[in-house]
Amino acid sequence: MLIMNPIDLTRRLVALKTMNPPGQERDCAKFLGALFEKSGFKTRYLEFAQARTCLIAWTDVRVCTGIGGQGEQRPVCFSGHLDTVPLGVIPWSRDPFSGSIEGDKLYGLGTSDMKGGVAAMVTAALRAARASHGKANMMLILSAGEEAGCQGASFLAQADQHLPPVGALVVGEPTLNYPCIAHKGVIWLDAQADGLAAHASVPDKGINAIYKAARAILRLQAFSFPTPNNPILGAPTLNIGTIAGGNAINIVPERVTFAVDIRTIPGQSHAAIYRQVEDCLGVDARISNRRLDCPPVETDANHPWIQDVFGIMEPILKARPVPRGINYFTDASALVPALGNPPVIILGPGDLAHIHKTDEYCRVSNIEAAEEAYYQIMMKWGNN
Ligand SMILES: [Zn+2]
After folding, report:
1. Are residues 198 and 137 in the same domain?
2. Residue 9 C-alpha to ligand 1 middle, in angstroms?
3. Cα separation of 249 and 213, whole Å?
4. Do residues 305 and 157 both lie within one domain?
């Protein structure tokens, strides 16, 4: 069969709208699944909600049960997500779904985050399967619902989905093709300050929840985590992203809620962080909802496979990679424990500077370079 090049495939994927919300990744997953099936891959589709489809594809290298190779050698696994963020409020200067190419730039919603990376790993996998006569031992996990907090990956990681242990994991999120070996974890929580409503003309009869929230928020602004910086990821961070409260100008407000985003580093206990935040909120507010909790990811730079990948990337990047990390989180947080804690590289063609915004693009040359890097990683796996 004709194997698409990664640029054409990126454009096809961009045309399949998967804005999250609502996601609706099924058509995209089925389209890619059909490509895999025609090339001899096994596939499995798993939905965490209606049309919220994750795709797992793997080469059936050995007679095995369940997903992936369970013989003497574990597969190398590639991970990407099929959903994109919604369109922003600023109008695009191009059609966000046509995948127009201008010079080296391929424009479209999700090109950098991360349909360019997904296309590169899919075409690389089809090419590696053909070149190795089906012997390249690999698995691809293409998830739904990443942008809303790794929903698909978390669903796949549940024990009853029977993900197999893998030997290594590549996550194709945007790094401009730099092989990063760590990323931060995340905690999203809501905090709430409660007061007592009263008429604004008699404020001493009420308790003003806005004043309480303000005191708590200023303490959080000054909060510093009692942990040494990570040599690659630096310090953990905290940001208050939203606040809501009060009913009317002439009422003493009885409730304020605000949302806190914390980015964590390896070695921090998330349980301890919740306690530290509660202590900081004090009597003025409390944690009312834990929305998301994903651990950080980190692999030792001296791991032999990491050094293998650095060796593959050296001629592509024209410099030997050095250990680096990224601040955002990925599906790896959810997948790594379920896949048997493999070494992890985050490596994708997208550019963090151009994601989640109007006129998103990915460089054609970066998608092509990522495809070649993924191909070499797949072909080298098991052959050293
Ligand atoms: Zn992404």
Report:
1. no
2. 17
3. 17
4. yes
Closest C-alpha among 359, 353, 355 to residue 100: 359
CA distances from 184 to 218, 230, 234 (A): 24, 10, 9
Q: What is the CATH number of the domain that holds 240?
A: 3.30.70.360
Rounded to the nearest angstrom, the distance between the alpha carbon of 355 and the centre of ligand 1 is 8
Domain boundary among 278, 294, 310: 294
Give the residues across from 54 on adjacent strands. 46
Return d(Cα 145, Cα 156) in angstroms, integer.
11
Same domain, 202 and 263: yes
Residue 91 identity:
P
Alpha helix positions (H), 151-246? 151-157, 209-221
- State mean pLDDT over 13-18: 98
pTM confidence score:
0.92
User: Residue range 51-74: average pLDDT?
Assistant: 74
Q: Supply φ then ψ for residue 12, to 5 degrees.
A: -65, -40
Range of the domain at 239: 185-294
Distance 190 CA to ligand 1 centre (A): 23
Q: Cα(332)–Cα(346) distance, rounded to whole angstroms? A: 9
369 contacts 177 by C-beta, under 8 angstroms:
yes
pLDDT (tens digit, 9 = 90+) per residue, 322-344?
999 999 999 999 999 999 999 99
Ligand 1 centroid to Cα of residue 49, in Å, is 20
Same domain, 224 and 179: no
| Same domain? 288 vs 341 | no
DSSP summary character for residue 161: G
What are the tens digits of pLDDT across the range 144-202? 999 999 999 999 999 888 899 999 999 999 999 999 999 999 999 999 999 999 999 99
CA 86 / ligand 1 centre spacing (Å): 13
Residues 189, 48, single domain; the answer is no
Count, residues in the chain: 384
Q: Among 277, 343, 331, which Cα is nearest to 79's?
A: 331
End of a domain among 294, 313, 330? 294
Q: What is the pLDDT of residues 76-103, one digit of tens each?
A: 999 999 999 999 999 999 999 999 999 9
CA atoms 2, 361, 80, 319: torsion sign: positive
